[in-house]
Design goal:
The protein is of the alpha+beta class and 367 residues long. It has 9 helices and 14 strands. It is globular, with a radius of gyration of 20 Å.
Length: 367
C-alpha cells in the first residue's frame, strides 16, 4: 500500500489502465459480435445465477423523515430505514426534494454526451496516471473479463481534485447542470448521514464532523448498450462501493441493477425520480459492520440502451476512517483498523471489481 504522504490524489493509478474498445461503438457497428473477453464463465453469467423477483428493496419516503421527531409516521419510517441499512445495505428514496426538471436535465446532458462521436468523447479520456475521464476503469490486466458498458468518471469536490479539462463542453449546459445536480445530491447525502447517526444513537452531526470541511464527491455516468446475448455478459461486475454512500439515478424505463441477498440476485425496479442509496465500504467501517456494503451488479438488455448516474460521497481525503467509538465495546470489538480515506480509495481504484474483496483484502493489509 502506498504511503498516504505519497498520494497526490486518490484518483492516481499505479499503472495505466488497459485500453479497451468502446462497447457503444461495438454494439453499433457489430451488434451480433460478442468478443470472448466479454463472455463470462458459466457461474458468473446472469442466466445461471439464482434470481429472486419476490424480494423487494425497501422504499423510504424522505418527506416523512422531515416530520417532528415524536411523530408516529416519522418513527415508523425511521424504523424502515434502520432495517433497510442493517438487512439490505440498499434502499430507494422518494420525495427527496431534487427538482424533477433538474433530474430530467441531468439525464438529458448525459445522454447527449454519449451521443457524441467517439472522436469527440475521446477528448475526455483519462490522462496518464489518473483514473478520471471517459473510458473504462478497473481494467488492470489484459486477461480479465470486460464489462459491457462505457462510462465517464469525474471528481466533483473538493476543488483541488476537479479537472475541468475532462468535463465535457458539449452539450453547452453539461457543466452547469452537473454542478447544480451535485449541490442537490450532496444536500440529500448529508441528510441521509444525519439520519444514520440518529438511528445508531450517535450525535446527529457525527458523520458530518467525521467527513470534515472538505468532503469528497465523484460521479460515474454509465451507458450500457444493447447486447445480443445478455445471458452471457455483465454490464458491471459484482462489487461493493468504495465510497461512504452512493446515490444512484437509475434509468426509469429499463431494469438492470441487481443486489445480492441470501445468495440470490434481487432486481431493483426503477421508480420515477427516485434515487437508489447504498451503503459503501467506508460506512461499513465507520459503523463497525452494523451497516454493511452489499455486492451489486448491472445486467444488460437485448433491445435497449440503459443509462445510470452514480454519485459517490466520501469523507475528506486526509480524514481518518475507523469504527465509531460508541459502537465498540467488549461484546462488539472493533472489526477494522484506522486508515485515511485516500489510502483506501487509491487501493480500490487500482483493483479490479471483485465482490467485497477490496475491503476484505485492504483490512488485512491494515492489520
Amino acid at each position: 500500500m502506498a504511503s498516504s504522504d505519497s498520494l497526490s490524489s486518490p484518483f492516481q493509478t499505479a499503472f495505466d489502465f488497459v485500453s479497451v474498445e468502446s462497447v457503444q461503438e461495438l454494439a453499433l457497428n457489430k451488434p451480433n459480435d460478442i468478443p470472448q473477453r466479454y463472455i463470462r464463465s458459466e457461474e458468473e453469467r446472469p442466466s445461471s445465477t439464482p434470481l429472486s423477483s419476490l424480494l423487494k428493496v425497501p422504499v423510504i419516503d424522505m418527506e416523512k423523515l422531515l416530520l417532528p421527531s415524536d411523530n408516529h409516521e416519522r418513527r415508523k419510517e425511521m424504523g424502515i430505514l434502520s432495517k433497510a441499512c442493517i438487512e439490505w445495505g440498499f434502499f430507494q428514496i422518494v420525495n427527496h426534494g431534487i427538482p424533477h426538471s433538474l433530474v430530467d436535465r441531468m439525464r438529458g446532458v448525459t445522454n447527449e454526451f454519449f451521443s457524441l462521436s467517439l472522436e469527440e468523447k475521446k477528448k475526455y479520456a483519462p490522462q496518464a496516471g489518473d483514473s478520471q475521464g471517459y473510458g473504462n476503469m478497473f481494467v488492470v490486466d489484459e486477461d480479465q473479463k470486460l464489462d459491457w458498458g462505457d462510462s465517464i468518471a469525474l471528481a466533483l469536490m473538493p476543488k483541488k481534485l476537479v479537472k475541468l479539462s475532462l468535463w465535457p463542453t458539449t452539450p453547452s449546459d453539461y457543466r452547469n447542470t452537473l454542478q447544480s445536480y451535485t449541490t442537490q445530491v450532496e444536500r440529500v447525502a448529508q441528510m441521509i448521514l444525519s439520519l444514520f447517526a440518529e438511528n445508531l444513537q450517535l450525535n446527529n452531526d457525527y458523520f458530518k464532523e467525521k467527513f470534515g470541511e472538505d468532503p469528497m464527491m465523484a460521479v460515474r455516468m454509465n451507458l450500457y448498450p444493447p447486447c445480443s446475448r445478455p445471458d452471457l455478459v455483465l454490464g458491471l461486475s459484482p462489487h461493493s462501493d468504495g465510497a461512504a454512500i452512493t446515490l444512484l439515478l437509475q434509468d426509469e424505463h429499463i431494469e438492470g441493477l441487481q443486489v445480492r441477498k441470501n445468495n440470490k440476485w434481487v432486481p431493483i425496479q426503477p421508480i420515477p425520480y427516485a434515487l437508489v442509496v447504498n451503503i459503501g465500504d467506508l460506512i461499513e467501517v465507520m459503523t463497525n459492520g452494523i451497516y454493511k456494503s452489499i455486492e451489486h451488479r448491472a445486467v444488460t438488455n437485448k433491445e435497449r440502451t440503459r443509462l445510470s448516474i452514480a454519485m459517490f460521497y466520501f469523507p475528506g481525503l486526509d480524514d481518518e476512517v475507523a469504527p465509531a467509538s460508541n459502537l465498540v465495546d467488549e461484546e462488539h470489538p472493533s472489526l477494522y483498523g484506522k486508515f485515511k480515506q485516500k489510502e483506501y480509495m487509491y487501493y480500490y481504484t487500482n483493483t479490479k471489481l471483485n465482490g467485497k474483496k477490496s475491503l476484505a483484502n485492504f483490512s488485512k493489509m491494515c492489520e
